[in-house]
Amino acid sequence: MTTPKIRSATPADIAHLVAWNTAMAWETEAKRLDPAVLERGVAAVLDEPRRGFYLVAECDGLAVGSLLVTYEWSDWRCGDFWWIQSVYIAPEARRRGVFRALYADVAERARAAGAVGLRLYVETENQRAQATYTGLGMERCHYLMYEASPL
């Protein structure tokens, strides 16, 4: 497998992004997503850059993974945190530097845009992902996440 090439997602990637989000939700939470809602959600990001953006990793000309970046304004720091979400790497491409390449691309874009930091959340039991993030220099923060859904 060659070094991953990272690019911005386009509407031509919607089918992959929907499939990968579906797989990620099942693998991490045993949650089934509504494909129609998910497709509209992915398309909405591509249609409105203020919502964020997707990056796609390719190896040997084939799309093998992606992630979503969204924004959170920090009044304390007067800048945006970039949230890394919806990470998925195809099983055959895992442990081959694909996420590392995606992360490096996001970090460079964030620096160039003046973001104040990167954040992500991870399942509490996903020790492999936590080790990956720590290995990239990320640190566990002291916040817990709460949710009220649906509203």
From TrEMBL:
<keyword id="KW-0012">Acyltransferase</keyword>
<protein>
    <submittedName>
        <fullName>GNAT family N-acetyltransferase</fullName>
    </submittedName>
</protein>
<feature type="domain" description="N-acetyltransferase">
    <location>
        <begin position="4"/>
        <end position="151"/>
    </location>
</feature>
<dbReference type="GO" id="GO:0016747">
    <property type="term" value="F:acyltransferase activity, transferring groups other than amino-acyl groups"/>
</dbReference>
<dbReference type="InterPro" id="IPR016181">
    <property type="entry name" value="Acyl_CoA_acyltransferase"/>
</dbReference>
<keyword id="KW-0808">Transferase</keyword>
<dbReference type="InterPro" id="IPR050832">
    <property type="entry name" value="Bact_Acetyltransf"/>
</dbReference>
<dbReference type="InterPro" id="IPR000182">
    <property type="entry name" value="GNAT_dom"/>
</dbReference>
<dbReference type="Pfam" id="PF00583">
    <property type="entry name" value="Acetyltransf_1"/>
</dbReference>
